[in-house]
């Protein structure tokens, strides 16, 4: 075991956090309340913290690695007696029975009062309204620094879709843009794919046919989160891109046809992609809900919907529900449709927003998009890091 | 829209499937049963298929793309009247009211009788017994062809852990091995990482300290599935690898302390990793259950467990439950411990099997592992493809 170097406290971010906790009220009182401490701040807020919690959250260099900021302390014992306590500059200093000293920043504690939720730069998801128009960010603004990239990420995470415009017609630009956010998410189609018609397609995207609205790779446990499609050429007739907010549509279905909604959210079906090298299968409902009943994922892809394996008496009802959801996707009021111009990139949440395209005629011109996927985690992380800059 | 070429049926895999469906009983009877067909096979089995299901599963070149094998037909309409039907060589031929002809292989239908489950080469998970010893596969056998790789994948998916031995001491061998299965899963630590002590670690793995049993990256929505660790050097004192079947332990906890099990499976906590470039947070219970109450994921990582944000009255009870689960991990009967030899690789299911290592003394020798992650989907896919070869 190497010795943990004791780093000068001024060179370590206080409390092992990189997010700010500098502005807020100082503590004005700390009292022993049995197996808890009762604290009061200058703004009148009060809270109790269990001794176990306080010991576990000690941020000294022995309890948190000063370089990695990771917790080294394992809360194996319940502190048997209350520590000696004092306030210093409005912060809390505890000296435990074994002599260990823990220092707690008053604002850090205030932000973490039991039951408080975590502040987060990541916005809530907002369903598309009837007049929804995508946020557009100029490529130059995205590249210039915090504000453009932050606007782009915020719109993407809130609306599930965002456009970048006036970008260069450069091969692999999509890879460069994605690489600012995080590593590419590779799948059985590789880390970066070209959407254009190919002579021996193993996937409908690589033909010129129209693509009905769909989710990419619902046959994976975790379909790709964010899809980026960068347009390099688009002068063939047709080929307009279409998008559809699956979450908004699922809520509409819940209102209009609760039985269809229930069936699509409770019935697991198989999705499967097979070629010479792959056989990727996953079983999931078309609509996934969280424990509060909120829709958190849509999986719709008619091409790779596998054999419907249900009890006989459920089959016709499932098709009825499927058709009801599909009918919503046919309503032009629920969908966006536009032609991507060369130098434009659309990014969207593949697990929320369905995408498709109209057929194009490859004899009239070329259509070439370059695509890749990103993890939502890295998009959220990037937004939190940009938000540190205030 | 391009014309879909009509491919000679003999050059297309029947029914658009690559998995075998050649051996099985022929049909001997098909009768109209209202909105269903009633079928009988030569082995006496009978089943009914709704007309909608049959129309939806037509595998002709118009309804399934002959190259991609993807479904082109969208089941928007319920067939209004029963098709004309006949048996030909024991297979079912339907002629629909609009003249469309669907041919169904008898064995394919037999395998897909409503309510039947899907055959799968992927084994069920088996918890470690007291005398569990990992399957070992020689590197040469893994590389030689189907049998070795299939044995390795089967053990990995069944036991959550498998060893490869007698491999070369070659830089990046782990990348070559993983690349046979699928693309590397990249994270904030890159696509391939070196586990050795580093001067400015941003993670405890890059130090020489002991690593308590843990899950990698529980602060991601989807932590990496399969971790591969290939040993290139290991002559420092200490550094033994430890493993622990989180699923078996969770079941033990459920028996011994149902209240602790309930609390760890119902209480969501935050995991968070922060450095200058990242702020990755996810909220999940320590034990995730499926709808049947089966444990499907363990997330335990004391280093990046973030602030415990719970209502005051739940905090002490959560720590009690955490300690109870942790105590199981301390019992040597529940854990594997061994030294990886140079040329050996361990692969394990990171969402099931916790891993750790004893501290090592870098002044006594070198320890160097190269690691990467794979998606479980690609491991399962590869096993299904290998199983096609019989």
UniProtKB/TrEMBL annotation, chains A, B:
Keywords: Dioxygenase, Iron, Metal-binding, Oxidoreductase. One of its GO terms (molecular function) is 2-oxoglutarate-dependent dioxygenase activity. Its cofactor is Fe(2+); L-ascorbate. Residues 1-25 are annotated as: Disordered. SUPFAM superfamilies: Clavaminate synthase-like. InterPro entries: AlphaKG_dependent_hydroxylases, GBBH-like_N, GBBH-like_N_sf, TauD-like_sf, TauD/TfdA-like. Residues 30-110 form the Gamma-butyrobetaine hydroxylase-like N-terminal domain. GO terms for biological process: carnitine biosynthetic process. Residues 141-373 form the TauD/TfdA-like domain. Pfam families: GBBH-like_N (PF06155), TauD (PF02668). PANTHER family: GAMMA-BUTYROBETAINE HYDROXYLASE-RELATED, OXIDOREDUCTASE AIM17-RELATED. Belongs to the gamma-BBH/TMLD family. This is DUF971 domain-containing protein. It comes from Halomonas urmiana. The lineage of its organism: Bacteria, Pseudomonadati, Pseudomonadota, Gammaproteobacteria, Oceanospirillales.
